[in-house]
Design a protein that fits this description.
- With 89 residues, the chain is α+β, with helices and mostly antiparallel strands.
- It is built from 3 helices and 2 strands; from the N terminus they run H-H-E-E-H.
- A two-stranded antiparallel sheet has the order 1-2.
- Helix 1 crosses helix 2 and helix 1 (5-18) crosses helix 3.
């Protein structure tokens, strides 16, 4: 099972929104919901890079790990994505 970068973005955004990780609240556990074979996969790295480039997530280097949080300045854009791809009836 291969997930596209869009599917991976959706999983990451869903997890961070549900955990309310906005702004200064960072977590390193965003990849834990992915299958083990996708954690270091090219599509996963692509999705994270795209989200950083679009400024949806804010990386913070802590204890040799990269922690992430959602960018509150892009909240409306992120929530539109959330409503479109994740919060389906």
């Amino acid at each position: 099972m291969n997930l596209s970068p869009l599917d991976i973005k959706a999983r990451i955004v869903r997890k961070l929104v549900q955990w309310r990780k906005w702004g200064g609240s960072h977590t390193e556990n965003i990849l834990n919901g992915l299958p083990n074979h996708l954690k270091g996969h090219k599509n996963t790295k692509t999705a994270l890079k795209e989200m950083e480039k679009d400024e949806w997530i804010i990386p913070a280097k802590k204890t040799n790990e990269t922690h992430y949080s959602l960018n509150p300045k892009k909240a409306s854009e992120i929530m539109q994505f959330y409503e479109r791809y994740i919060n389906k009836p």
